[in-house]
Design a protein that fits this description.
Number of strands: 4
Structural class: alpha+beta
Largest sheet: 4 strands, antiparallel
Strand order of the largest sheet: 1-2-3-4
C-alpha cells in the first residue's frame, strides 16, 4: 500500500509470483481508495491507469487521457447497434 503525498488517496496492489497452475487466477491490477472520513472509499479497480477525470494525485499513479474513438470502437458500436 502507498499513500499519496496529500494523504487523501491510497494505492493498493499485490505483487506475488504464483505457480504455473495458478497463473490463470492471477490479478495484475490494483485498487485506489479516497479518504472519506472516518473511512476509505474505493474509487477505482483495474490494471490500466484510471481516467484523468478521477483527479488521482500524479505522485500515486499516472492517469489515462481520453482518446477519440478509434476504428475498433466504431466497429464494436455498429455491432451493438445492430443487436438492438
Amino acid at each position: 500500500m502507498r499513500l499519496s503525498d496529500n494523504g487523501r488517496y491510497a494505492f493498493v496492489g499485490a505483487s506475488f509470483t504464483a505457480s504455473p497452475e495458478c497463473d490463470r487466477y492471477g490479478f495484475n491490477g490494483y485498487e485506489l481508495f479516497r479518504r472519506t472520513s472516518p473511512t476509505w472509499t474505493r474509487v477505482f479497480v483495474g490494471s490500466d491507469p484510471p481516467p484523468c477525470s478521477y483527479a488521482v494525485p500524479r505522485d500515486l499513479v499516472a492517469c489515462l487521457k481520453t482518446q477519440p474513438p478509434g476504428s475498433n470502437n466504431r466497429i464494436a458500436r455498429r455491432k451493438l447497434v445492430g443487436l438492438g
